[in-house]
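User: quick one, fold this
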Amino acid sequence: MQEETNRLVRKALEPLPLGQLRPAGWLLNQLEIQAAGLTGSLDEIWPDVAESGWIGGKAEGWERGPYWLDGLVPLAFLLDDAPLKAKARRWIDYIVEHQHDDGWLGPLHDTKYGYEYDPWPVSVMLKAMTQYQEATGDARIVPAMQRFFHRLQQLLTVRPLQVWAKMRSADLVLSVYWLYERTNEEWLLELVRTIQEQSYDWTAHFEHFLYTERQNSWQHETHVVNTSMALKQPAVWYRLSRAERHRQAAQRMIDTLDTYHGQVTGVFSGDENLAGQNPSQGTELCAVVEYLFSLEVLLSILGDPALADRWERIAFNALPAPFKPDMWAHQYDQQVNQVICAISEDRIYTTNRPDANIFGLEPDFGCCTANMHQGWPKFAAHLWMKTPDDGLAALSYAPCTLTTTLAGTPVELAVTTSYPFGETVQIVVSAQHPASFPLLLRIPGWASSARLTVDDGKSVEVQPGSFHRLERAWHRPVVLTLHLPMRLATQTRYHRSVSLERGPLVYALKIDEEWKQIAGELPHADWEVYPRSPWNYALQIDRAHPEGSCQVITHALSAAPFSPEGAPVSIQVKGRQVPTWTIEHNAAGPLPESPVSSEMPLEELTLIPYGCTNLRVAEFPVLDA
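Assistant:
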C-alpha cells in the first residue's frame, strides 16, 4: 500500500505547480494557436462568458464561465502570457471579492440549470482557483475555499447532492483534498464522506454494467460526459477509503467502455449518450477533454504507466481532430469515420441535433464551446510529475523545459523531440549543485526494443509498459537519448474492419476538402465541410504484417502539425473503392463486413495521423485475397 499523507493515501505522483514547466517546439506552437483562437477571445465574443453571471453579467451563471477559466488559467501560465493572465486575474478578483456573506461562491442558480445552491459549477471554478493559487501564491484562495466548504457542509445536511452534482462529485472532492493537504483540518474529510454518501456510485455502475448497446434516450447514467468524469471517481474515493475495490475500478471501467462503446482513438462513443462501436456514431468533445483530465487524476493517484498509454493516445488523436486547425472553430461531435460535416435533419446521432458535427463557434450546444479549452494546457502541464522520493517522472514526451527543486537543489530539464511523430526523445538534465535523485522515464507499451543512451555511453534496452528508473548523481548537463521504435500495427475493429497505427498515432485517409462558411463572422464562423475526393475504400493489407504493404514517409515538422497540409508523417497503402459503401443519415454508412470484394482499380492511398484530419476514414474494410 502507498504511504499516507495525514489521513489520505499518498498520491503515486504529484503534479507540478503551474509555471515550473514551459512548452517548447511544436507544443508551444499548438498552445499559441489556441491562445490566438477561441480560448484567448471567448470572453470578448461569446456572451455566455463575456457577460457571465459569475462576473456580474446577465448571461449564464452556471458552468460555462468556470469551464472557460479552468482552461484559460493553465494556458496563461504555461505561456507566461501577460494579457491572458490579466484576464484570469479579473475573474478571480471578482469571484473572491464577491463571495457571499454565508461563504457561497458565485451566483445562485435557477432550475433551468440545476438548483439554487448547486455545487457542480462551483466545483469547476474551484479547479481554476486552485491552479491559479499554485501559479501565483494568491493568499485569498485558501480562506475563500474554507468559507465555501463550511457553507456547503451546512447545506448538504438539509439538501443532498442533486442531478449533475451527484453524478460529478469527484471534481468537488479533488478541491476538498487540495485544501485538506494545505490545512490538515479534519472536518474536510468528514465533508468528503458526506459527499460520497450522496454521490452516484459509479463503481457499482460498472460492476453491474447494463448499457451494452447503443442508447437511444437521454439519461444521466449513460451521458458521455458524466461517464468520462466518472472514470476518476473510485480512485478519488480510494485515497480516503483505502478500499481495493476502489483502487482497481478504473481499469474495469475503461475495459468495459472499450468492449461495448470503444473507438480506435482511445475514447468511447457518445453523441450525448453511449452509442456503441460504430465508427460513424461520434463522440462529444467535452467527453474527450474530461477523459483526459480523469486520466491525469488517475495517473497522479495510481501511477500506472498503462494509463499514460491511453492518455497520450487520446491527446494525440481525439483531442486535435475536432478543432479547425487554427482553433477558431470546433465540433460538438467528432466521428472516427467522418466523411461529411453538414447540417441535416436526417442524422445518425442518438440525441444530438443536426449541426452536431459542423465546425463552428457553438454547434449543437455551448458546453463544449466553454469546456474544450482545458485539453491541451492540462496535457502539457502533466507531462512530468514529481515522485514521492523527490524525483521526476515523465508521463509523455513533448518538447518543453522544466525548472524545479529536487533534493534541495535547483534542477533544469529540457526535452527536445518531434514525438509523437518521431521516434527519438532527447532529455538534458542539470542540477545547480551535485544532487542525487531518481528520474523515471515512461516506456510506452507499444515500444518494443526501446533503448536509452546516457551521454555518449552504451545504449541499454528498456522495458515497454514500465517506468525505467535512472538514479544517479546529477550536476553538469547529462544528455539522455531515448529511442522509441514506432512499428506499424493494426487493430481489428467494427465489422472486422482494420485500423492502422504507428506508435501512439492512429492513421486515417486523407480526403480532399471543401469548406463552406454557413454562418457567423470571421474568424469565428460556422463551417460545413464536404469531401472532394473518394473516401469509400477497402485496404489491401496483411493485418499481421502491415509493414509489407505500407510505406512510411516523414516530412518536415511544421508550425501547425495537426492539420492536413502540415502532417509530419504519412503512410502510403493500396486500396480499392467499394461503390456500395455510401453516405447514409449524413454519415459514412455502415461498414461493410470484411473481407470485401471490389472490381474497382487498385489505387495508392495516403493516410495521415488522425489528429491532422478534418475529414477521414480510420476504420477500413479489408479486401479479400
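User: anything notable?
Assistant: Residues 426 and 460 are 15 Å apart (CA to CA).
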